[in-house]
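Quick start: read one record
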Amino acid sequence: MSAEVPLVKILRTMYPKLQEETYVFCQVSDSRLEEVLAESLCIFREGEGTSAILPLHLAKQYGIASSAPFRQITLQVFSSLSAVGLTATITGELAEAGIVANVVTALRHDHIFVPEDSAERALQLLRGISNRVYYT
């Protein structure tokens, strides 16, 4: 399966899926990193320390200070890292609705983290993008 590059095709076939897990963003100390690494969704080393996206239950279990809870929406389309405009389109639509969007782009899919209480609305908006593009 090859990655999609044309924005219109990606938007038509992105099939957003709301994941069940609730996540938080947090800073993980080097001494705790090994403990949480296996269950972390994402680890990113920044100049100020190591950031992680952890399941909420794990952050609570380890007593790690974290952000408010987020839900993950995964775009099911295999989008290319060379595709232009996907993040701007998605975040623009969500911003117009007043929904915070934190995007993580991985090798095959894009993942949008939205506040837990806005997740269903965000999912509907993303589906709306696909529908509008499909019928134009």
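The domain at 7-134 is CATH 3.30.2130.10 (VC0802-like).
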